[in-house]
Amino acid sequence: MKKRTPVSEIMSKEVIALTRADDLDRAEMLFKRHNIRHIPVVAEETIIGMLSYSDLLRISFADATNDERNVDFVVYNMFTIEQVMTKNLISVSSNTTIKEAAEILAENEFHALPVVDDSILVGIVTTTDLIKYLLKQF
């Protein structure tokens, strides 16, 4: 296993992102369509927050019932993305080592880290990316 491999080797580079102007219905649609669990929130190319699927579940009944009524629509319209997203983020650069990123994720009990170079969001690295990398080593 290479000890100095940068996260740029395993991060997702084509990042699905939201803006302050997007709503939570759009966020849920993106989570489900792309089978992802974390979406950075950006102002142009600068990250301002992170929304996780767990954040949506906390405020809604998403996937909790098979009820045909759209209860989530009503709940989602009570909140903005900015109210629900995590704001004080820890990010890494694309040359941060995979080991360093794993340590940050483990210590903080995060599941995703934005990858930022020169204040611009260039990717996202998740615990799933780390697990896939480890599996390739065996």
TrEMBL record:
InterPro entries on file: CBS_dom, CBS_dom_sf, Diverse_CBS-Domain
Keyword set, alphabetical order: CBS domain
Location of the CBS domain: 11-68, 85-138
Pfam families the UniProt entry points to: CBS
Alphabetized Gene3D superfamilies for the sequence: CBS-domain
CDD domains: CBS_pair_AcuB_like
SMART domains in alphabetical order: CBS
Claim: rRNA-binding is one of the keywords in the record: no
Keyword ATP-binding: no
The protein's name: CBS domain-containing protein
